[in-house]
Amino acid sequence: MNKPILYGSDYSVYVRSACLVLMEKEIEYELVPVDIFAKDQLPRHYLDLHPFGRIPAFDHAGFRLYETGAITRYIDEAFPANPLQPPTAQERARVNQIISIADSYIYPHLVWGFYVEQISKPRECTATDEGKMAAARIAAPVCLKALSDLMNGRPWLGGTSLTLADLHVAPMIDYFLMSDEARQLFETFPDLASWWSRMSQRASMKMTKPSG
Ligand SMILES: N[C@@H](CCC(=O)N[C@@H](CS)C(=O)NCC(=O)O)C(=O)O
């Protein structure tokens, strides 16, 4: 079977999620570098792969796809070894629910709120947007409590084994935890802290650590 191709950069939480899935499933793939923040240098043909100009985009033997949740579910189903989706409809619904929570609330508030406002902007000597931080401070405990409630005492976000949910959320948490304030809040959720100590030690997480 042809090697899947992923277009993107290692700093992207979404590219990292797709890489994590490919690695955990032990699938060989090619990462074609696309730096989305160098917009003026974005190759014109990239918009054929992703009309919204985001990363990642994906190509498997001519089957093109964008939107990370769709990409990771496709990979899991097209390559059945080492499954990352649970067997029952209800368990899969939970996994999909967590992926949607990550896209809708965790990414905007924990990554673009805490990480970008408290870590990335000060590094670039840009002023923090206090309005965004205020919204992130309200949303973060809600996001973390929702994850903790859905874990319901089990070791992984989606239940008793590693799933697409863990691999979607983990890159976002990695950026979030770069903030001191975020780490203090995170430690008040011991089951999430213990999940993170397992998750962050996985070889796939170490091998996909952003270089920048
Ligand atoms: N809904 C998209 C989101 C992808 C996304 O937002 N990627 C970010 C990098 S982590 C990006 O391309 N940002 C560029 C921009 O916002 O212009 C997905 O699930 O793949």
Ligands (ions, cofactors included): glutathione
The counted number of beta strands is: 4
Mean pLDDT: 96
The CATH topology of the largest domain is: Glutathione S-transferase Yfyf (Class Pi), Chain A, domain 2
Described by its quaternary structure, the protein is single chain
Distance between the termini: 33 Å
CATH architecture descriptor of the largest domain: Up-down Bundle
> Taking Cα atoms only, what radius of gyration do you get, to the nearest Å?
17 Å
Order of SSEs: EHEHEEHHHHHHH
Structural class: alpha+beta
Q: Strand percentage, roughly?
A: 5-15%
Shape call: globular
Would you kindly provide a written description of the structure presented here, covering whatever features stand out?
By secondary structure, the protein is α+β, with helices and mostly antiparallel strands. The protein has two domains: 5-78, 3-Layer(aba) Sandwich (Glutaredoxin), CATH 3.40.30.10; 89-207, Glutathione S-transferase Yfyf (Class Pi), Chain A, domain 2 (Up-down Bundle), CATH 1.20.1050.10. It is 56% helix and 8% strand. The chain is built from nine helices and four strands, in the order βαβαββααααααα. It has helices at residues 13-24, 46-49, 68-78, 89-123, 130-151, 164-176, 180-186, 190-199, 203-207; strands at 5-8, 30-33, 57-60, 63-66. It has a four-stranded mixed β-sheet with strand order 2-1-3-4, with helices on one face. Strand 1, helix 1 and strand 2 form a beta-alpha-beta unit. The radius of gyration is 17 Å and the shape is globular. The two termini are 33 Å apart. The mean pLDDT is 96. The structure holds glutathione (GSH). Glutathione binds next to helix 1 and helix 3.
